[in-house]
Amino acid sequence: MFQRRPLVAYPTSMKIKSALIALLTLPVLFCGTANAQKQSVSNRKTDFSGVVLETPSKSPVAGAVVSLPTYGIWTLTDDDGRFTVKSVPEGETRIVISMVSMVTVDKQISIGKTQQTPAQFLMEVESFGLDEVVVTAKSNKVGASTSSSISRSAMDHLQATSLGDILELLPGQLASNPTLNSPATASLRQVQSDALNSMGTSIVFNGAPISNNANMQVGNTAQDGTLNTAFTSTAGSGTDLRQISVDNIESVDVIRGIPSVEYGDLTSGVIIINPKAGEYPLQVKMKINPTLTQVSAGKGFDLGSKAGKLTLDLDYASSLSDERRPYQGFKRLTANTLYSNKLSNEISTTTGFGFYSDLDAQKLDPSDERYQRKRTSRNTGYKFNTNILWSANRNFLKFIRLNLSADYAVQEGYSQEIKGNFGYMVTSAMKDGTVASNRTEVIYDAKGNPITNSNLIDPGASTNILPYEYLTKSTTYGKPLTLFGKLLANFSGKVGKVNNRILVGANWNTDANFGRGRVFDPLMPPESGVRMRPFKDIPALHQFSAFAEENIETSVLKRSLKVQLGLRYDMIQPLKDIGRNVLSPRINASFEIIPNRLTVRGGYGITAKAPPLMYLYPDNAYYDFINYDNLGQSGLTDDQRLSIITTKVYDTSNSKLKIAQNTKKEIGLELQLPGQRAFTLTYYDESVKNGYSFGTDFASFKTFNLIKYEATEERVGNYPLLAEKERNKIVLCYNMPLNNKASHNKGLEFDFDFGQIKPLNTSFVLTGAWMQSRLTSTNNSFYQKNPVNGVYKDIGVYGTGDGSRYDRISSNLRIIHNIPRVSFLVSLSIQTIWKDQHRYLGTENKTPIGYISAATLEYTPLNPGDPISDDLQKQILSNREITESYKFLWLFNLRLTKEIPRFGGFAFFVNNLFMYRPMEESSRNPGTYTYRNPEQFFGVELWVKLGLSKSKK
Predict the structure, then answer these.
(1) Contacts of 881 (CB under 8 A, 6+ apart)
(2) How far apart are the C-alpha atoms of 761 and 773, rounded to whole Å?
(3) Which residues are registered as beta bridge partners of 49?
């Protein structure tokens, strides 16, 4: 049975200090809120009314969301398209009106008591027949952080098959062929994706994060030191984006900068998914490309003015990695329903249920009779999410939002393969020091002393003598459950010319796994040194967070100044004597240098990601050593065969494990010119410390004395008499969870929208980035030669800093030509990689800085000039000092979309239009060549619309 092991036991003084910091800091912000409220009484407020109409029919738009972001005020339009927001400060402010399948209205308005008639706002149906259609990621401000917004039109034109595909629209991201044949995880502001970056990217759906913390579908981390499994898994590396279909999504916001303190349990950034909610016509889509077939359908129903609206969608996708190999592929089925309703003038809700099932399988290939390999990874999930919002708009309290969600999944990873080179004894013993044999009775030596002790230490242990070759089978059953709750209050008021908006809230996360864990025949194991462990015995991960944030908007020298200042407090495993906590201050600010033209902005903040369950409660390390074995001898009867094995078990948990943190800094310029031309330039610098990984440390090395026996007399019909031959000191090393990863990402992003040349109906958008990523180890590395005649060598200790550095400069020019009269749009993407380099770091670690004695495990440092034993010196490959640098590269991708009004449309794309795939020789490994561009790839999408909503008839 798995032992519940504490992560860390804090001294009482540390717990008190942490609690005081969290409890005292938040009231300071609340006090500021109270003062602002008292002072704002003198500011004049009024009601603001308006009507939202569809153009050109001038029919009312019912159910549109009308918000004033500056104050956190929002409401919905009634059946006549009318709305009223009460108690709004007089003056200039921003209004945003959004509706499913319609173009969002975002403009400045003036609110005053002189309003005689309702203000009129016109909305256009989102269509490729508009004069301007946005099919790129637009620079946006979610709060005050650097972000990009991706619209429904952009996703349709891209023909995205999953959430992972749309990320190529971000500055600096490279285009690739759409595929569902391999796991897709998010990578933000990093050249080469790694588990740390993707795990630290939070995916938020309808206000609630999608957690992967309870995913335990991993291999033997104690001995392998990796998360690799024979089947497909993204445990420890973020959410698999293939599971998220985009056809039910209205828009996506990707925060790459410093997010609001409302968002936590992350390091890299936030991807906010806004699902379709409201009434829209039935739409059926079908995508086909050489590896994929996808069908989806969705519709939004109006249940009546009091009953609300209901959306339903269904998606099925089937993908093959190669049509010539139908035994390996991926299948996905998703279904979602979302109910939205305004329960009263002040209370509204959005509640959704979701289902997904995917199968990533390598089926048994009839031609693979030799090894009979088979791999399957099946995931079935159920999701519930609800948002309840009380739009109070009472003096300074504007709204209170409650978000609740529950995600439950059933995971099954299976692998089988015929393996050979066995023929030895295995044991199922799970207790340290167990000595077992292939016989049921206790084995004694020639002096009558007992050798085996399994009957006393681990009575349930059994043994088996493996055949030389056999079929291994292993299944990992996981049942992760995530519960999330967040309560948020929004206050706003105006003090003189200063608009204040304050967010105060708290959330609770629980991640647990009730699966059976890895299941196999313990006497026919898939590998040595592995045992079964039920996941349900592992304690749940609990997280409590509290946050407060002040948003200020004012005018200084007739120029706009915006400041977002927040503080977040996170604690893992609260309500226990164990745990960790972290404070995350964040600030974003912007100032207009030239009013309505040039703005400078900057930010600083700390984000933190809690360790997932696999790092908090890792597997034990099991080692089995042979004391005596005559199984290989010939001429023996079964009664004479004897094998004795000793099991050593080590707890691999790390009581010093810390929370990973990212220090994010950025500064940028935004230039707005007439004609909707916008130019954004952002420099960022992000440094992650205490990143998670399995590895070795000084504490990972252990020694014990293994007693070897020899036969002193052969006996007929019985095992031989045994006597102690020797005692060998064994030195072993296991992998444990460590904070041994660090990353440093910096770069310069640019997003230049040159606007549309009206006579040509052609737009030019240039995006790209210079990116530099450093991934290094903060732990020492170790080197040990193989033992000779049972004698173990000393272990060489090398310096920290091993890793890699990647440099890339890339740009993507999108030329977008629109013909509104025929609802036709074509775009050409010209991607250029100007610089692409990789170099190894830590190449100066050529000689050991010390060694660990194999006899005592004591560490002895080495000074410069000290003699170095050949046993400590590892071989250094000289080519590691060579920088791999590739030539610049062009890639042309073509996309076209034709919409048939009131009916549907079709889209077509060709990636690598000119079939340009140059082979380039590696400078590091001469004779090795790499194809530098994805293969030419094409696809087509058809969609049909049936029926129109009331506002569109």
Answers:
(1) 840, 843
(2) 39
(3) 84
The whole-number pLDDT of residue 948 equals 53
Are the beta carbons of 153 and 234 closer than 8 angstroms?
Answer: no
Q: For residue 538, what is the DSSP state?
A: S
Q: Rounded CA gap, 29 and 44, in Å?
A: 25
Domains and CATH numbers, the chain: 12-32+144-424+466-618+653-696+734-952 (2.40.170.20), 43-125 (2.60.40.1120)
* Contact in structure between 85 and 393 (CB atoms under 8 Å): yes
Whether 136 contacts 813, CB under 8 Å: no
User: What pLDDT sits at residue 29?
Assistant: 43
Strand bridging mode 559-572 / 580-594:
antiparallel
- Letter string b/e over residues 365-401, b meaning 16 or more CB atoms within 10 A of that residue's CB: eeeeeeeebbbbbbbebebebbbebbbbbeebbbbbb
The DSSP secondary-structure symbol of 25 reads H
Q: What is the C-alpha separation between 939 and 943, in angstroms, rounded?
A: 14
- Take residue 83 and report the two structure tokens written for it: 């709305």
Question: How far is it, in rounded angstroms, from Cα 177 to Cα 917?
Answer: 14
Instruction: State the residue for tokens 């003189």.
Output: 496
As beta bridge partners, residue 105 has 97
Query: Are the CB atoms for 790 and 768 separated by under 8 Å?
Result: no
CA–chain centroid gap for 202, Å, is: 6
Check residue 304 and give its pLDDT.
Answer: 83
Answer for the pair 152, 250: CB distance below 8 angstroms, yes or no.
Answer: yes
* pLDDT (0 to 100) of residue 227: 87
> What phi, psi does 243 have (nearest 5°)?
-75, -15
Residue 730: enclosing H or E segment and its boundaries?
A: strand 718-733
Spatial CA neighbour of 607 closest among 138, 241, 24, 145? 145
Encoded amino acid at 444, one letter: Y
Amino acid type, 118: P
pLDDT of residue 633: 87
State which residues of the chain have pLDDT below 50. Answer: 1-42, 949-953
Q: Are the C-beta atoms of residues 400 and 388 closer than 8 Å to each other?
A: no
CA-to-CA separations, 601 to 353, 558, 699, 750, 799, in angstroms, rounded? 39, 17, 46, 14, 40
Residue entry with tokens 């046993």: 871
In whole angstroms, give the CA distance from residue 717 to residue 640: 6
H or E element at residue 745: strand 736-757
| Conformation bin of residue 36: beta by default, left when phi > 0, alpha when psi is -120 to 50 | alpha
* CB atoms closer than 10 angstroms to residue 769: 22
Rama region for 947: left / alpha / beta (φ>0; ψ in -120 to 50; rest): left
Is residue 188 packed enough to be buried (19+ CB in 10 Å), middle (13-18) or exposed (0-12)?
A: buried
Residues 6+ apart with CB under 8 A from 263: 202, 204, 209, 255, 270
β-sheet bridge partners, residue 341: 349
The values of phi and psi at residue 282, to 5°, are -60, 130
CA 722 from chain centre, in angstroms, equals 56
Report the b/e string of 674-685 with b at 16+ CB within 10 A.
Answer: eeeebbbebebe
pLDDT tens for each residue of 229-239? 989 999 999 89
Whole-number pLDDT of residue 23:
39
pLDDT of residue 92: 84
By C-alpha distance, which of 261, 279, 282 is closest to 101?
A: 279
SS3 615: helix
DSSP state of 185: -
Tracing tokens 């049942």 back to the chain, one arrives at 479
Please state whether beta strands 45-55 and 119-124 pair in parallel, antiparallel, or not at all (unpaired).
parallel
What is the model's pLDDT at position 306? Answer: 83
The separation between the first and the last C-alpha atoms of the chain, rounded to the nearest angstrom, is 65
* C-alpha pair distances (Å), 58 with each of 80, 141, 279, 809, 952: 11, 30, 18, 48, 10
Q: What number of CA atoms fall less than 13 Å from residue 544's CA on the CB side?
A: 10
Is there a contact between 8 and 578 (Cβ–Cβ < 8 Å)? yes
φ, ψ for residue 638, nearest 5 deg: -60, -35
